[in-house]
Amino acid sequence: MANYIPGCKNGVFRITLVLSLLVVISPVSAQYFTIERFNAEIKIIKNGSFTVTETIELTYDRERHGIYRELPYEYIDELGDIRTTPLAVLAVRDETGRNWPYKDTRHGGFVNIRIGDPDRYVRGRQVYIITYQVERGLLFFDDHDELYWNVTGNEWKAPIKIVSAEIIMDVGREVTDFIGSCYTGFYGSNESECDWQAEGNRAVFSCRKYLGIGEGFTIAMGWEKGIIPPPTAWQKFWWNLNLKENWVYLIPPLILIFMIFRWRSKGRDPRVREAVTVM
């Protein structure tokens, strides 16, 4: 059929075909690794904070220095409120327990973890085990309390083959009334290609689909009231103050306090009982 297309139209056809191939091929060729397995273990303790241990097993298509992992510490929860969750990176290791070099920075509501040695390339299969602690991550409702968590995030520029998550309630008592749900797909999707089951103080979530670029896996698990006490007013005050991010605002009042102290101790004129004779 193409032999009967006039030269000009044939040229347009070829250009259109090449552009179409570029659109299809470029997102794939831009990726330099595939995530073979992504597992998150979330351990919730009595004070309401929890520790997340992510095991990311991937295969590099070509030599690279490492990966970036973006963790949101500011987000809109399922109630539509903007929440800030203090987050601290504790360690990044490989499967043998050896430390990976990493650097974490904060920008735009995300903690960006750059993992890898800038002077060393890696290739093939690699495992990254990231451990971090989160505060203010639980939701407290009138009839139950809940963890609502985006396990993988939607920022990966690579596909994820196998995704799972495990929640452990390390709260010193048995949890008997779990409720749960999970979601897959792009941000805001209500797709639910996933399963979950609970046994004892443990719940396991698994994804039934292959996650493409930009897709994520979100889980929600609730339990009866009284298992974990809600945060006190004092805790909320310190969380809202967020000194780790807002410490620079303490400089002006500290300088003012210091100057007042200096003025009171060194700057005031001495008191005298009688007039000083002018010489």
Describe this structure in words.
The protein is α+β, with helices and mostly antiparallel strands. Helix content is 19%, strand content 43%. Strands 6-9-2-1-12-15-14 form a seven-stranded mixed beta sheet, with no helix packed on it. Strands 10-11-16-13 form a four-stranded antiparallel beta sheet, with no helix packed on it. The chain has a three-stranded antiparallel beta sheet with strand order 3-8-7, with no helix packed on it.
Helix and strand arrangement:
Layout: H1 7-29, E1 33-45, E2 50-64, E3 66-72, E4 74-76, E5 82-84, E6 87-93, E7 102-107, E8 110-116, E9 122-134, E10 138-140, E11 145-150, E12 160-170, E13 179-185, E14 194-199, E15 202-207, E16 216-223, H2 233-241, H3 243-246, H4 251-267
Parallel strand pairs: 1-12
Antiparallel strand pairs: 1-2, 2-9, 3-8, 4-5, 6-9, 7-8, 10-11, 11-16, 12-15, 13-16, 14-15
